[in-house]
Amino acid sequence: MTCTVTDLACARGGVTLLERVSFALHPGAALCLRGPNGIGKTTLLRTIAGLQPALRGSVTLPPDAIAYAAHADGVKDTLTVAENLAFWAAIHGTPGIAPALEALDLATLRDRPARELSAGQRRRLGLARLLVTGRPLWVLDEPTVSLDAASVARFAGVVQAHLGQGGMALIATHIDLGLVADVLDLAPFKARPRSGISGFDEAFA
Ligand SMILES: Nc1ncnc2c1ncn2[C@@H]1O[C@H](COP(=O)(O)OP(=O)(O)OP(=O)(O)O)[C@@H](O)[C@H]1O
């Protein structure tokens, strides 16, 4: 199942940020989005994941085929690590949480309440959620924030394994994860500022 994004335009706070974004992501492939702070990487990922409407364009994969992981990780503080994963596994109908615990090195933390996790441990729990969704496209917004070097390498291996099973990954990241991935520079897709005054844009084009 290929994810095809065609002529996508997205906005935040009423401002159009990116326009004419098109690409195809095939099974087993990863694409890294690059661009300076504020260009609209998060906004584009949220739009592709179906968390906000597109101004224009289309995404062929439905939102329920996409697992989105971002800064707000959805971890429930009052539940333990294992309970958080079991909760998500139940929602997605995944049989067990052991592979996810193992993959993100969370087995020794399984009975720790999430509120007692360090930032990096919490991030690993948020990323472990990806594995229990069973969804083919992982949309990842700065997934390595707070992770130490060993955890970055471990997570890169998790993504690589997902790709090896025919999954896909779309990643906004400022660091090189060491993945075999195409890179999409968003600069050419930056929307031109609009005045909102009829005739103004044309007069000053
Ligand atoms: N809730 C909001 N309301 C209005 N504008 C917002 C909101 N959130 C973000 N923005 C603005 O939208 C623009 C794009 O933000 P976005 O987070 O998509 O950029 P980004 O490329 O992911 O940035 P970064 O690399 O810093 O994470 C920025 O100019 C930002 O200030």
From TrEMBL:
Keywords: ATP-binding, Cytochrome c-type biogenesis, Membrane, Nucleotide-binding, Translocase, Transport. It holds the Pfam family ABC_tran. InterPro entries: AAA+_ATPase, ABC_transporter-like_ATP-bd, ABC_transporter-like_CS, ABC_transptr_haem_export_CcmA, P-loop_NTPase. Residues 3-205 form the ABC transporter domain. GO terms for molecular function: ATP binding; ATP hydrolysis activity; transmembrane transporter activity. GO terms for biological process: cytochrome complex assembly. SUPFAM superfamilies: P-loop containing nucleoside triphosphate hydrolases. PROSITE patterns: ABC_TRANSPORTER_1, ABC_TRANSPORTER_2. NCBIfam families: ccmA. This is Heme ABC exporter ATP-binding protein CcmA. The lineage of its organism: Bacteria, Pseudomonadati, Pseudomonadota, Alphaproteobacteria, Rhodobacterales.
